[in-house]
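For anyone still unconvinced, we reproduce a single protein record, the chain in one-letter code, the fold tokenised, and leave readers to judge:
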Amino acid sequence: MRIRELTIYRLRLPLKRKIRHASYSRTDSENILVACTLVDGTQGWGEGVPRAYVTGETVKGAIQQLADAAIHEPLQVDCDNWNDVVTMCLGVRLPRPDNDSRGCYGNALRCALELSVLDAYGKLFEEPVSHVTRHYAEALPIQKSRREVRYSGVITAETPAREMISAAKIRIYGFSHCKIKVGLPGVDDYRRVSRFRRWLGRRMDLRLDANEAWPAADVRQRVEQLLPLHISSIEQPVPHAEVAALAELRRTLPVRIMLDESLASEYDADCAIRDETCDLFNLRLSKCGGFLASLRLAALAHRAGLGYQLGCHPGESSILSAAGRHFAASVVNIVYLEGSYDRHILREQLTAEDMTFAYGGRAVAIECGGLGVTVMAQALDKLATRCQTYAIG
């Protein structure tokens, strides 16, 4: 079975409230959608979340990148099984600017394109996308099927009044892990995290995310101040330009360091492993270039003795939530899991299926064909703008 056409959309999803962290704030999320239609009419969907401050991408740039890409020939093949599909996806080359030394520009587009293809063929084969993991040879060391996964809570920058409400929701909802954003201008991190530790209790696993907020020279002082609060890890404490400084800090600070903005490609992963700058990778499907690329990064971390979490971008629709669920249900040793916040964050839903986690952050694996979500035509008309359709072949 071959691909007949691809269609790219510009998607704008309004958020229920403003989401702030040290790098950015937003009231909506502008994403890209790709629809892949096979010759028999089977249609799959994929989503990407371009973030200029992470991989240098924009929605406009991603749409232009697809227009400039010579992807027709690599996609003009018959696929009869997952191995064929994986080989086809790996053969797609997207144009990159000359200054993309890290090899991460275009990752959001690659993610959307790849997921649309995997979704379409998964529906055709009547197999869930999670089965891709067992068919991808490089990912075999990390393959493991699970019937249930468990997500963690996240608390972003909020007013003091909202902080207490968020903490109460996290505790009442039965989460066992929670991430707190730190490094905001004018905010005393110690006092803020102390409040959350008091409200959430000593059993809650608390980790922090600074979103590149702290200069490398300040990290030791800031982290040591927070150590009495029993913090399990600190995510991206320094700007990417200063990431090399984390090697020495990691050797002397008794807390795990996680890379996020500095972990978006195999080049980044190789540098992190070589320079010993972290203990954990934060994998996000859109940031890292899709399902297959994220599997490769998880395998690299596993072989190097590092851990990894599966993260998400605020404002992902249920398409990426479903893709994350398939990843989480088929990959072993994910330390923390973020995503499936759909009803808690988005004002409107794109799909008929609700991917929001249940009590305690628990969610069951998706067993139906493809990603397991159905894009609603009415929601698509309201939230997305069709940009271009490309005939394949």
